[in-house]
Amino acid sequence: MANVIWIKNGHVIDPASRRDGIGDVFVADGVIVEKLFDDQKKNVRVIDASGLVVCPGFVDLHARLCQPGSTARETIQSGSHAAAAGGYTTVVCMPDTKPPADTVGTVQLIKEIADRTAIVRILPTGTITVGHLGEKLAPIGSLKQAGVIAVTDGIGGVQNNEIMRRALEYSSMFGLVILDHCQDSSMTQGAMMHEGVWSIRLGLRGFPRAAEEVVVASDIILAHLTGARLHLQHITSGNSVELIRRAKQQGIAVTAEVSANHLLLTDAALHDYNTNLKLAAPLREEEDRMELIKGLLDGTIDAIVTDHSPVTPTEKDCEFDYAPFGAIGLETALSVSLEALYHSKSVPLAQVVEKLTISPARVLELEAGTLAPKRPADITIFDPNEAWVPKADSFFSRSSNSPYLGRTLRGKVRTTLVGGKVVYENGRIVDESC
Amino acid sequence: MTENNTAAWTRKDLIGIEHLSKSEIEAIFAQAEIFKPTLAGRDKQTSLHGYTVVNLFLEPSTRTRTAFEVSAKRLGADVISIAGSASSLVKGETLRDTALNIRALNADMIIMRHSAAGAAAYLARVMDIPIINAGDGAHAHPTQALLDAFTLRERFGKDISGRKVTILGDILFSRVARSNIYCLTKLGVEVTLAGPTTLVPQTFTNYPGVRVVHDLRQALDGADAVMLLRIQHERQTTTHFPSLGEYTSMFGLNKKRMSWLKPDAIIMHPGPINRGVEVESDIADGPRSVILDQVHNGIAVRMAVLHLCAGSLNK
Are residues B178 and B107 in the same domain? Predict the structure, then answer.
């Protein structure tokens, strides 16, 4: 009864239902409703969204929540707080925990911790191979039964084409999508950043674009062979975009994502060896950045992801070679996407929202990413223009390894609802457990 | 006698050549010219008297470490050398903590050699005392470049602009090459990089004033000096070239190939030499080799760097 919410006068953007205009959104008993009855209106909580965007909660296909195993970096709970603060209501978490999510027990543990502590929806993935070592298939069917939403081997991925082929064939039996971090690791020994002018100047070994592209190509070929569903993770190279574009034109069942970082930053940002910019999917050059944006616009790239990878300040405070890869992203991905796409006048606001909501939801066929009636009321309300400056002590994440510390970004989440419940509002997390 | 040069120098650290102006580079040379004649005598200079200078060498080095030690001592400093294997880093201590401890033990300056590119810049960010980069990974080795240019100036006169210098060998993994590219091009030298395609990628042509040549004859033709680089077999993965023997047959400097250079051209090498690999022994020991002059000049140039950076402490 109490759970009736009337979000008034917002700029409602719901790409799935082609809504894009000033209007209201109604929530009753945790789901979106078309209208409120008179008796509901008596006991309604009104949220004034004038001047704000009201859209489906964001869906992240690529985050690390580090639990079990690396809870100094992040926990499922702290990661869910970061997600809520960033407008994310559904987070797909990577299986490269310690131990990795390659057994039913570990998947159950992750689900149990998420059920108990998370304030947003956490969807675990499992590994493709045992220990994500790329050698022997993990018990993918059992992992599916335990509740994984997809399987992936993460960094370094499956390096053996025979195993990848069989993984695709086998997973297709369960309707599981394979997520692949495309990298030929034989070409990236000791690599620290994109191979190009900047790696030469800085004296760092490089990840050549080709190390990604050859795996994008082989993955496409194997997806074609098997007919299985394959999703290519955080694509960085402009040439990869073209390979994927052609594959889609041929009707091959591939989808692809890009991290928000790659839409805004290039390798030149590494000029002073800032370890927070050391990313496993390396920042590349301006021409790649432009191709990635083009790929988003024409539908070649389906989703923007955070690639949220927490690393403690202590671990990042060292020589560049020794710092772990990764940057946090859940709390900045919206702002970074808006800076790169909307404020730069490259992409309309509704399309940015689409790539953060319904489009990633469709990749894994999730019941999320829309404000359609009867769907769970996962809603994000944000101000696309509010300027803010990320600071090391301002994150809800346990870690602060953000590429954007001290940089003014535009776009700030005001309110996040999960299942009709406010989980984040005006800078504060609403979490009854703490 | 040193006032003019310290006026042109305001830096606390020497991390690389990239951000130095031509006048800063020339201030170092001018100071080195003052110090060089004093090396013949036994009397020490006094500008670092009472200073404690720490040589933190986290990667093997003989020449550079010794040269810095001699330089600091010739300026009157107390010098402590710490080698990588002897430091606490093997016990898991971070570089920041090691350096803070050295600072707490009253060090006034740290000279560091490190296998990781960017390590010197990192240390300079977290420390308030002067940091001198004695080589960081494949990134920079500024004092080597300065002593190389100083040696060229001794041979060809103070204005070396328009001279042609060929750097030959493993450019990709070489911090010496990178620092020399900046130093020489700032001084107007025409730089040619030469060696196998796998070790001298075309990307290096993005440095202004630099050309990349894979034909040795073309690379050496008309050069005033050739800087040979050691083939660092310990750094390469095995994929970069077939064998040392093949490297020598394609790119080793021998008598016949010497004739492609200008008649008065000089042969340089930062050491250590692989005799019979990148250069024939006779040439390394021959009259056109200035390899040991480079080593000797390394003392005066490093004295100048230490003197100038220490001077910034008193400003």
Answer: no
Q: Which amino acid is at A429?
A: I
Q: How many CA atoms lie within 13 A of A220 on its CB side?
A: 21
| pLDDT score of A434 | 65
pLDDT given for residue B1 in this prediction: 44
**Which of A195, A199, A201, A271 is the mutation pick for testing B, counting most B CBs within 10 A?**
A201
Distances in Å between the alpha carbon of A189 and those of A192, A196, A235, A279, A309?
9, 16, 19, 15, 21
Q: B149 and B53 in one domain? A: no
**CATH (residue range A4-53+377-385+408-429):** 2.30.40.10
CATH value at residue B106 = 3.40.50.1370
The Cα B114–Cα B136 span in angstroms is 5
> What's the domain range around B263?
143-290
pLDDT tens digits for range B102-141: 999 999 999 999 999 999 999 999 999 999 999 999 999 9
CA-based nearest distance B263→chain A, Å? 33
Taking residue B120's Cβ as centre, other Cβ atoms within 10 Å add up to 31
Residues 6+ apart with CB under 8 A from A212: A182, A183, A184, A235, A236, A237, A240, A281
Instruction: Note whether B152 and B281 are same-domain residues.
Output: yes
Nearest to A317 among B96, B138, B172 (CB): B96
B125: left (phi over 0), alpha (psi -120 to 50) or beta: alpha
Each domain of chain A, given as residue ranges in start order, spans 4-53+377-385+408-429, 57-363
- Could you tell me if B284 and B155 lie in one domain? yes
Residue A180 annotated in active site: no
What single-letter amino acid sits at A213? Answer: E
Decide: pTM greater than 0.90: yes
Q: Indicate if B93 and B160 belong to the same structural domain.
A: no
Containing A327, the helix (H) or strand (E) segment is none
Q: Which CATH superfamily is domain A57-363 in?
A: Metal-dependent hydrolases (3.20.20.140)
Beta strands in A75-205 (DSSP E): 88-93, 121-124, 150-152, 177-180, 193-194
Cβ <8 Å between A273 and B121? yes
Let me know if B310 is exposed, middle or buried by CB neighbors in 10 A (0-12, 13-18, 19+). buried
Q: Give residue-wise pLDDT tens across range B248-258.
A: 999 999 999 99
Q: Are A23 and A12 in contact (CB under 8 A)?
A: yes
The rounded distance, in Å, linking the Cα atoms of A322 and A47 is 48
Q: Check residue A118 and give left, alpha or beta (phi > 0: left; psi -120 to 50: alpha).
A: beta
**Residue B86 confidence (pLDDT):** 52
Which residues share a beta bridge with B165? B191, B225
**Complex ipTM above 0.90?**
yes
- Assess whether B97 and B210 both reside in one domain: no
**B204 vs A189, A200, A318: nearest CB:** A200
Total structural domains within chain B: 2
Query: Could you tell me if B126 and B169 lie in one domain?
Result: no
pLDDT in tens, A133-167: 999 999 999 999 999 999 999 877 799 999 999 99
